[in-house]
Amino acid sequence: MNRLTREQLAALAASQLPPRSFVNLGIGFPTLVSDHITEASGVITHSENGILHIGPRPAPGAEDRDLINAGKTPVTILPGGSYFDTGLSFAMMRGGHLDIAILGAYQVNARGDIANWSMGLDGSAPPAVGGAMDLAVGAKSIWVLMEHQTKEGESRIVEACTFPLTAVGVVRRIFTDLAVIEVEPDGLVVSRMVDGLSFERLQALTTAPLRLARSLLA
User: Fold this and answer.
1) Per-residue pLDDT of the chain (218 residues; tens, 9 = 90+)
2) DSSP code of 41?
3) Is residue 135 part of a domain?
4) How far apart are CA 55 and CA 35, in angstroms?
């Protein structure tokens, strides 16, 4: 079964960003999206530690240890970019100034609830929610970027989240390595699938009920 790589999935998400939108890239997987945003799109990216207009990752050896994103990963900044304190950054997040926040998640359910607390399982950081809860309720739209299944083969798209919730009913679009899924008022709608994957197989890999978009029924 074909699956999108993380780079392919990040490129897909970047291609669907509205022109000239302000977009937060959450810690981890979502930061890859900045590598695939074109200058012509006019998209301005935001990092919660206080950066606007993040560029692609620096080339090996060209990293600046003083220029990092919220996940402590080296970044570049594009012409016209700016730096500011965390208080101002969170005011942007909480004040509805971000059009989209792209977040990772452990689980998302059919009504758009998201669970993406750091559980600290790898010992690299203590369990925490960080700024995700501010982004989840402050951005105008929440997109999620994640693998469709856990390493153990369990669905991350579920009927009811079993992890502590970050926010309720906020997710609007889910990008996984198998499909793009819209969160509609009446459930989850599959708008895109990887080549060679049947809807029946996708549903078998997904705990929550799905239905196909009309464009895929033709």
Assistant:
1) 789 999 999 999 999 999 999 999 999 899 999 999 999 999 999 999 999 999 999 999 999 989 999 988 999 999 999 999 999 999 999 999 999 999 999 999 999 999 998 766 666 566 667 788 999 999 999 999 999 999 999 999 999 999 989 999 999 999 999 999 999 999 999 999 999 999 999 999 999 999 999 888 76
2) G
3) yes
4) 7
Per the structure, the complete domain to which residue 48 belongs is given by 6-217
Domains held by the chain: number: 1
User: What distance in Å separates the CA atoms of residue 115 and residue 151, rounded to the nearest whole number?
Assistant: 17
CB atoms within 10 A of CB 197: 16
| Beta strand segments in 48-195, E | 51-54, 77-83, 100-103, 107-109, 114-115, 141-145, 157-158, 171-175, 179-184, 187-193
Considering 48, 63, 152, 184, which one is annotated as catalytic? 48
* Cβ neighbours around 34 below 10 Å, total: 23
List of residues 6+ apart from 106 with CB closer than 8 A: 115, 116, 117, 119, 156, 163
**Considering the entire predicted model, what is its pTM?**
0.94
Q: Is 48 among the catalytic positions?
A: yes
For residue 59, give the CATH number of its domain.
Answer: 3.40.1080.10
